[in-house]
Structure formats: C-alpha cells, structure tokens
C-alpha cells in the first residue's frame, strides 16, 4: 500500500510550478527580496501539492489560491527589478490559482460539501 497517491493531476502540475518558482530565482537571475519571496512561495506551493498526495483534501487548494494571489501581487508590492521576474511570478500565480480552482470544481468531497451547505440554505 502506497502512502502517496495522486488523485488529481492538478497537484502534479502545481508541484511542477513550485519547482519552477524555486529554480527561477537562479535561472532568471533574481536579486534582493524577489529571490527569497519567490523561493518561499515556490516551496509553499510545493508543500501544498505534496500534501494533496499524502492527505487528499480540498483544503490545500485554498492555501494554493492564497499563495497564487501572493505570487500575482508580489512583483508590484515588493518591486521586482526585471520584467522576466514579474512575468514569471504573475503567470505562475495565475496558473496556481487556476489549477486549484479547477481541482476544487472537480473534487467530489468539495462539491458535496458545497451542495450540502449552499443549496439547502437557498431552498
């Protein structure tokens, strides 16, 4: 019996985005705060993705969405020095948000919770 089981391909894709973020600090030659912010957010994305393998739950997607939002906002709030760093961070953030949202919409546990909590109140 395997401890890690891939239930959603989006977790694998998020893991790859996280790996890119960590490596992009060196590939794109980031400097200053951009290096540490990008590495920290990349590691966070990687940890949430791996958590999706170990303890499958829809909750890690909310964390990934927050990290994705931070990736989108970071270049302008921190002031990244290069356009390539800004584009990489913003696009990576958008991809993480889209993957997490897609996974939520296809996760049976989340859709069951959503229907139980929201459709009963409307009726």
Describe the structure.
It is a single chain. The protein has helices at residues 9-27, 33-54, 59-79, 83-106, 108-122. It is mainly alpha-helical. It is elongated. The protein starts with 8 loop residues before the first helix and ends with a helix. The model has no long low-confidence stretch (mean pLDDT 84).
Key terms:
transmembrane; 123 residues; transmembrane helix; SPW; 5 helices
Kindly summarize this structure in a few lines.
The chain crosses the membrane at residues 12-30, 36-55, 62-79, 85-105. This protein has 123 residues and is mostly helical.
Q: Mind summarizing the main beta sheet?
A: none
Radius of gyration: 16 Å
Helix content: over 70%
Question: How much strand content do the residues show?
Answer: under 5%
Element string (H = helix, E = strand): HHHHH
Q: Can you give the mean pLDDT?
A: 84
**Overall structural domain count:** 1
Say how many strands there are.
0
Per DSSP, the total helix count is 5
State the distance separating the first and last CA atoms.
Answer: 43 Å
Shape: elongated
Low-confidence blocks of residues: none
Structural class assignment: mainly alpha
């Amino acid at each position: 019996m395997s401890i890690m089981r891939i239930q959603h391909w989006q977790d694998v894709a998020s893991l790859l985005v996280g790996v890119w973020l960590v490596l992009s600090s060196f590939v794109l030659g980031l400097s200053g705060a951009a290096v540490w912010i990008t590495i920290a957010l990349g590691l966070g994305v990687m940890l949430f993705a791996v958590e999706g393998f170990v303890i499958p739950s829809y909750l890690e997607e909310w964390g990934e969405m927050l990290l994705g939002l931070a990736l989108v906002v970071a270049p302008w709030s921190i002031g990244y020095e290069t356009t390539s760093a800004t584009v990489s961070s913003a696009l990576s953030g958008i991809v993480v948000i889209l993957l997490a949202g897609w996974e939520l919409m296809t996760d049976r546990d989340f859709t069951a919770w959503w229907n139980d909590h929201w459709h009963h109140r409307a009726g």
